[in-house]
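Supplementary Text 2. Reproducibility record for the structural model of the 85-residue chain.

All settings were left at their defaults, and a single model was retained for analysis rather than an ensemble. We include the record here because the model underlies the residue-level annotations in Supplementary Table 4.
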Amino acid sequence: MSILYLLIPLSLILLGFAVWAFFWAVKSGQFDDLEGPAHRILFDEDDNDLTPEQRRQRQAARRDPTDAAADGSARKDTPPSDESR
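Retained model, structure tokens:
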């Protein structure tokens, strides 16, 4: 029975910490975008996964997309479009 005198205040302190952590997370914007990370993982757009040569090709294509399409070669880091099927 005497252990309850320790456990009840300890559980209230833990509950208070959990409530404070929740309100801190809401206030700091942790729950602002719930769907973005779930959709972002489906797309392979991370430049860190590419080799340095592929990274340079992608940057060159972003700068001038007409030059990348003019040579007729498909880029290795992108899947073929639906129109080519």
